[in-house]
Amino acid sequence: MITAEIMDLLDASIVNVAGPDLEKSLGAGPVGLQWVIGGYALTLGAGLVLGGRYGRRRMFLIGLAAFTASSLLCAIAPDIESLIAFRLLQGTAGAMLLPQGLGLLRENFSGPELTRVFAIFGPVLGLGGIIGPVLGGFLIEGDFFGLGWRSVFLINLPIGIAALIVAAKFVPDKAGSRTVRVDITGATLIVASCALLVLPLNQGQEDGWPLWTWLSMAASATGFALFALQQRRTAAAGREPLVAPALLRKPAFTVGLGGIALFFGGLIGTQLVLTLYLQIGRQFTAGEAGLGNLPLAVGTAIGGAVSGAFLANRIGRGVLQIGPLGQLAGAAVLWFELDGLDSATFSIWDIVPGMTLAGIGAGMVIAALFSFILAAVDDHEIGSASGVLTAVQAVGGSVGVAVFGSVFFDQAKTGDFTTGFHHALIVQAGLLMAFLAITFLLPKKSRPDEEQHGITPEASLDSDAEHLTV
Fold first, then answer.
1. Quick count: other Cβ atoms within 10 Å of Cβ 368?
2. Distance of CA 323 to the CA centre of its chain
């Protein structure tokens, strides 16, 4: 389970350092790069709403096989259009795979043993986001067998095949695994609404924001509203909705969805701009840019450890307010660090303080955010609620890639990379201030970690979706 899930999560960030190589190899421009990175998160997030709807073992094996095959297709893509299409397919396969891991663990372990399993599972998965750019930079710069950027996808093949063989042999086929009829109308609405939002955000800046981009975003907002209405009607008719309508009637949960979208959109978007700035603006190699993400990753690990170990329990939701303030402080330090840089002598050490401080603040939020939002839902709703939160996290990241990529490239095309980074920091500051306001509407106390995974007498082992804490 751990091997398969890390492989899935790794691909969300491993391509961040491949921009210059994709431009040289496939002629990928800024928009193409944004689609390669953000498209994966888009279909992953939209598909997560559906991913937990089938018998878990079968879906896990199908998802793992599809993910491995789509990784091969990405590796052999002849042009940027094909790579984008294959990345969308890979994200869809990832959505089939991700929810099943936690579900299968819950089916096969119980009680204190299950608690120990999750104690190992969560932190190990967290490594996926941390090592993604570092591993990607190592593979691209190593240029093993002359494969260049293609190796970041080919590495999934031996891992995926081995995991598939082991899973087919050792994962039990529980007779109780159920299959649920999918709400096709709801699925169509959510996928279309996500696409109508991300498409203009990716293309708008390059096309000069024509009328169709604004109409598309308006249609997206309408689509999400129709989805909420359709889900209520589906439940009222006695059919199985994708999202339990009762969740959307809980104000704390609803604003929590907005908070997750704002926070992760800003975090992932800023991380992308950092990598682009190092590679395009400062001419770092892929390997150097990957290592350049380490201060942010280390800070995130420190902040998460402090928050998860004791701070969240002691001060409650205050940890969600200290975190963004730390990020804002880190952004301010980074702003002034960028202003004082000498291009001729620049090294990653020049911006380590600001990046580390921002990472600590982000880690404090990441470790606690889901648990405070889940405190607003009832025990039997945890599965559905956590699945929706994870989906919104992924879609928010995709929107962040589109928005921050457009902001940075708007200045980068003039050669003013530092101003592009400055503008990205301004956008992040705005998102963090909005997120900070939202935190005051969340429950004051978090839900205990073991209850987030449904380890309670009241929680059903057949929840429709699973929670993944990264």
1. 24
2. 19
Round to whole Å and give the CA distance between 23 and 139: 17
What is the chain's mean pLDDT, rounded? 82
- What is the DSSP code (8-state) at residue 171? S
Q: From residue 142, give the alpha-carbon distance in Å to each of 28, 81, 137, 251.
A: 21, 26, 8, 50
Q: Over the range 247-259, which residues count as b (16 or more CB within 10 Å of their CB) and which as e?
A: bbebebbbbbbeb
Residue 117 three-state SS: helix
Rounded to an integer, what distance in angstroms lies between the CA atom of residue 350 and that of residue 418?
14
Measured distance CA(212)–CA(145) in Å, rounded: 45
Summarised one tens digit per residue, pLDDT across range 239-279 is 878 787 788 788 888 899 899 999 999 998 998 899 889 88
Please, how many CA atoms are within 13 Å of residue 458, restricted to the half-sphere of its CB? 9
Question: What's the predicted TM-score (pTM) here?
Answer: 0.82
Going from the C-alpha of 263 to that of each of 37, 197, 221, 239, 400, the distances in angstroms are 18, 18, 19, 33, 9
Contacts of 276 (CB under 8 A, 6+ apart): 19, 405, 408, 412
Q: Which range, of 13-22, 96-105, 295-304, averages the lowest pLDDT?
A: 96-105
